[in-house]
Write a structure and sequence with these properties.
mainly alpha, globular
């Protein structure tokens, strides 16, 4: 609404187009997120609740980093094919929104701690914090940097909300987070976002190297996450996967 009012309907159309590809990340995460919500509630009273959260979030991180890196690798050619010429400039904003979507999914993950421990008021409060930050930044930045303001305000608001929810979830559940893994992977994703603003072979070289790094760093955990959704009778028939996980 703010982009439409402060810039134009055409600009809002470009922003909407920019969200199409990041929404793929959200859709993939939803398949996992629904199962995770139920598991978090069921495991809330168990003795190894902390270890359960630690393990699942570690697997969740790896899956999201790999998916996001894969989409960042192909976002430019996919946009060229999928999005009409009138909205082709959406490629300028889509990479930032992909990174934002990763943080959104992580924030959703941390929010399950509120549900499991019956602290849902905090979920509302953190959502309101996100909204206030986003609206405030849009009001300040849209007149200065246009559509980029909507992308950056969403990113910054979810960085803040994720940090708050991570702090609360650790306090409520007591699980551990691999910060080194998180910062390294996020750093590589930021490099991929910046690489998408470049042109030619340099862009794809950086994207290829960055994707390979994230894939190798998270391969085992991602495989373990995927294996959780594969029936055990099929896993037994693929010994190499069983050995890796």
């Amino acid at each position: 609404f703010m982009v439409t009012k402060m810039i134009s309907e055409e600009a809002n159309g470009i922003l909407t187009a920019a969200y199409k590809i990041p929404n793929l990340v959200s859709t993939i995460y939803l398949m996992f997120g629904q199962a995770w919500n139920m598991s978090a509630i069921q495991e809330n009273d168990s003795a190894d609740r902390s270890r359960f959260y630690t393990r699942v979030f570690d697997l969740n991180q790896s899956l999201m980093y790999t998916i996001a890196a894969g989409i960042l690798l192909i976002v430019k050619p996919v946009t060229a094919v999928w999005i009409g010429p009138a909205f082709r400039s959406s490629i300028n904003y889509a990479p930032i929104l992909i990174l934002t979507t990763v943080l959104t999914c992580f924030s959703t993950f941390m929010g399950t701690a509120y549900i499991a421990t019956k602290n849902t008021v905090k979920s509302l409060v953190t959502s309101l914090v996100s909204g206030v930050i986003s609206i405030s930044l849009n009001l300040i930045l849209i007149p200065i940097i246009g559509i980029y303001a909507a992308a950056f305000s969403a990113l910054i608001s979810y960085v803040v909300v994720f940090a708050i929810r991570l702090y609360d979830a650790k306090k409520l559940i007591g699980f551990k987070v691999a910060y080194t893994k998180m910062f390294i992977n996020f750093g590589i994703l930021v490099v991929m976002v910046l690489a998408n603003s470049l042109r030619g072979a340099v862009s794809y070289t950086i994207l290829g190297i960055s994707f390979t790094a994230i894939f190798l760093l998270n391969f085992r955990c991602t495989l373990q996450m995927v294996a959780m959704f594969i029936p055990k009778k099929f896993l037994k028939k693929i010994p190499i996967i069983k050995k890796l996980i």
